[in-house]
Design a protein that fits this description.
Blueprint: H1 2-8, H2 11-31, H3 33-37, H4 49-65, H5 71-99, H6 103-122, H7 131-149, H8 164-186
Helix pairs in contact: 2-4, 4-5, 5-6, 5-7, 5-8, 7-8
């Protein structure tokens, strides 16, 4: 495990992750383009969930490269990376079960979203999150769930709109579990902490 943490703090590795996350963020916003065209502008910040998560992490990586911490971005990044990483894997697998097909793009989305969740969690010992960062992140996360499943702005996935209630219920509890996980790994007193 010590080797992994040594690799994670390497400047060259941070640059590679930064480039990957910038490209993934751009692709993600392009993926949401059609939905954003149909969406009232007031909801725009809350519609492209995964690319916004990776955008938060882009800011975290930029700070890490400068040997700094940006606690609010770290809190937003870790919660949204894990949440939407897991969410996209689950919904793509459910889409495969329901329709019998997700195509190569669906499998690629599963792999990249799994990687999102893993990278968010792996960097947890390096985060310097304060309680007010966490509170803002809780509000952002639960507010986003309301926008998605009360105001109907959830990501458009094949025939999965037929299961919006079930997915909404799953998403709410996923948010709670990820927020609790973030508290455990990033805020409790006896957590593992590492310096960059």
């Amino acid at each position: 495990m010590a080797y992994i943490y040594l690799l994670l703090r390497q400047r060259s590795f941070l640059w590679i992750l930064l480039i990957i996350n910038i490209l993934g963020t751009i692709y993600g916003y392009i993926w949401y383009k059609n939905q954003l065209i149909e969406t009232p502008a007031i909801f725009w910040p809350f519609v492209p969930d995964s690319p916004t998560a990776s955008l938060f992490f882009v800011f975290v990586l930029i700070a890490f490269i400068q040997k700094k911490n940006w606690g609010l971005m770290e809190a937003l990044a870790v919660v949204t990376l894990i949440k939407y990483g897991i969410w996209a894997v689950v919904v793509n697998v459910l889409t495969l079960i329901v329709t019998g097909y997700i195509g190569i793009g669906g499998y690629i989305l599963i792999v990249f979203h799994m990687a999102m969740a893993v990278q968010g969690l792996l960097y947890a010992p390096f985060y310097r999150i304060k309680y007010w960062h966490f509170i803002i992140t809780v509000i952002w996360t639960l507010h986003n769930d309301v926008i998605d499943y009360v105001w109907g702005q959830m990501p458009k996935y094949s025939v999965m709109y037929m299961y919006d209630r079930q997915i909404g219920y799953f998403t709410f509890w996923l948010s709670i579990v990820v927020l609790a996980t973030t508290y455990y790994f990033c805020l409790r007193e006896k957590r593992l902490t590492l310096s960059l």
